[in-house]
Each structure stands twice: as structure tokens, then as C-alpha cells.
Amino acid sequence: MASSAPASLQVIAMHGWAGDGANWNAWQEVSAPFGWRWACGERGYGCRTPLNPGWDGAGQRVVIGHSMGPHLLDAAVLAGADAVVLLAGFGRFVPSGAEGRRVRAALAAMAAQLAEGPSEAEAALRAQTLLRRFLAEAASPDPPELLPPGPADQPVGAAGRERLRHDLALLERSKGLPAGFPTDARVLIVEAEADRIVVPQTRALLRQALPQADLVSLPGAGHCLLDSPVMAPVLEWLQSLEAA
User: Fold this and answer.
1) Less crowded by CB within 10 Å, the N or C end of the chain?
2) Which of 87, 99, 72 is nearest to 169 (CA)?
3) Rounded to an integer, what distance in angstroms lies between the CA atom of residue 115 and that of residue 128?
4) What is the pLDDT averaged over residues 65-74?
5) Beta strands, E only, the chain
6) What element of type H or E holds 166?
7) Where does the pLDDT of residue 7 fall: very low under 50, low under 70, confident under 90, or very high at 90 and above?
8) 3-class SS of residue 51
């Protein structure tokens, strides 16, 4: 009797702060010939409905997270991964010393912009302005026009603002790898060398926390990895999992 074909990869992808699940559309299109099954988490900062995906069926389980994405997944989901890809990621976000004080001050200023009042309309527009400024910084050195559509394209409603505030506080409190991080998983770290969100000290802390990880470093790439060849090395690495 002929043996059945091996099950394809299961991929759970999670966007970062100020993003949404549509960020993964291009990834799904490019990987479609491989037959991988995708489930994209959704935090619900904008008009999309929040979604916490779970594993389903056979096949190697892969988490792909951008920035704080892995910190937003349920710990049980992350713990079930056989492999993890960290795109412009981090464990502890705020480093020590003078650089850490600068990062904390920036986070406090962002939190103030997300405060409620004096009216719903003004709070929604102020939050939208904050997201646009943050994403322009995250896109740099690439132009923000390359950013895909997302929560910053319209005023941010009350539920979205609450999630943004909650996750900003989580960002500041992060002290290491997110809860549930699988200690025996294969890991790929993709660093953006021109990242203006995850500072060099923080990137170094992640490498120290995961000394067994494979590393891809992208010169000139900003935090959003917009105009950089990020998909090719990641997809090649994931294909090597299937071949192993």
C-alpha cells in the first residue's frame, strides 16, 4: 500500500502593535503553492473582528510573529509550536540604562495620546494620528506609502483604543520571551538592521535568550520589513522544516 503524503505545515501568524491580520495576505499568496495552512491572529485594533487562532490537525506547527505578535498569542498556542519565526521581534522590549529611559519616555507619550476625551471623536482622531506617526517610524527608512492598509486608515474606536493601551502596557512590562515560548522549538530570528522601534540593545537581548536560533540579518531594513527580501529566506527556512 502506498504511503500517504506528509501533512503540510500549519502556520499561525500574528501581527504586532498597530497592525492587523491582513498584513499576512502577501505571505499567504506567495506560499500558496506549498499547500501550507494559515491561520492569522487578529487583535482588533481597527474594524476587523478579534480572533485568537488555534492548532488544527496534523503537520508541523509554525508560529510567525512580527514584532510583539508572539506576546499577543495565547501561551498554550505558542507552547504548541514546533518552530517559531520572529520578524523584527524581541523578548524584553525596554533595555536598561539611558536607552531604556528613552524608550520608556516614548511609551509614556504614546499612552498619553491614547487617553480618552475630551470627546469620542477627538479621542478617535488623536489615536489615528498616533498610529500614523508610529507606523511612519516603523516603516523608516522606507516611505510609509509602502505600508499595507490597516487600523491607521480610519479613526480608532473605543474598543481599539482600549486594546492599544492594554498592549502598550504589556510592551513596557515585557521582561523576556513571551509566556509559553517553546524551549525545544526551532527558531529563526529575522533582524532589521535599520529598525527604529526595536533598538540594538533589545535585539542583542533576544539573540542572547535564544543562542540556538538561526539568524537572518537584513541590512537597511526597517521595522516593518517593507522593501526588503524578507519572504525568500523565511520561506526557504520553512521549506527546510518539511524536508527534515
Assistant:
1) N
2) 72
3) 12
4) 98
5) 10-14, 37-40, 61-66, 83-87, 186-192, 214-218
6) helix 158-173
7) low
8) strand
| Integer CA distances (angstroms), 143 to 54, 57, 148, 236, in order | 35, 40, 12, 27
- pLDDT (tens digit, 9 = 90+) per residue, 104-149? 999 999 999 999 999 999 999 999 999 999 999 999 999 999 999 9
End-to-end CA distance of the chain: 24
Residue 2 has pLDDT above 70, yes or no: no
Length of the chain: 244
C-alpha cell at 241: 522544516
Contact in structure between 77 and 63 (CB atoms under 8 Å)? yes
Question: Residue 192 in contact with residue 88, Cβ under 8 Å?
Answer: yes
Reported pTM: 0.95
CB 213 within 8 A of CB 185: no
Q: Contact at 8 Å (CB) between 18 and 136? A: no
Residue pLDDT, tens place only, 204-231? 999 999 999 999 999 999 999 998 899 9
Is the distance from CB of 81 to CB of 188 less than 8 angstroms? no
Q: Residue 36 has which C-alpha cell?
A: 501550507
Helix spans in 11-119 (H): 25-31, 69-72, 75-79, 97-113
- Give the span between the Cα atoms of 42 and 39, in whole angstroms: 10
